[in-house]
Design a protein that fits this description.
about 140 residues; globular
Length: about 140
């Protein structure tokens, strides 16, 4: 059932341990055509519900496609679908959407590890702030 739902939502599976770039090419094409996509910059679900360090994939894609990033924090999903499970449990998740993160100052610059690290750290700080806000005040 979950596979059917994800496929019908346009889910693009990505093997984090693979060097296959076909999913990345699909995502870049979607971004360049104006489509919005959702990416978990942590790369996986956290075992304890706390934020994990971000990978640079979302930043790299946004810079390649020359699009902004909309930071979004989600809290409570660990209880709805704990790591290692594939079914949903009843409960609530809370979502907070931030302001667009404009990366245009970095367009045209060489895509160095430092550039990716710097912009990924900014994105992580923005999402962390949103996450802490909903964690402390989920219903406001």
């Amino acid at each position: 059932l979950l596979t059917w739902i994800l496929n019908n939502l346009g889910f693009i599976p990505l093997d984090r341990d693979s060097t296959d770039t076909s999913a990345m090419r699909i995502v870049l094409r979607l971004l360049r055509s104006g489509q919005a996509i959702g990416i978990s910059p942590e790369g996986t679900r956290s075992p304890d519900g706390e934020m994990l360090p971000f990978t640079d994939g979302a930043t790299k894609l946004a810079l390649h496609a020359k699009v902004p990033i909309l930071p979004v924090a989600v809290h409570g999903t660990r209880e709805l679908m704990p790591p290692g499970t594939y079914g949903f449990k009843p409960g609530r998740a809370y979502i907070k959407v931030g302001k667009l993160f404009d990366l245009s100052d970095a367009y045209g610059k060489p895509m160095t590890p430092e550039l990716l690290k710097e912009n990924t750290a900014i994105l992580e700080a923005k999402v962390s702030e949103l996450y802490e806000d909903i964690r402390q005040r989920p219903l406001q």
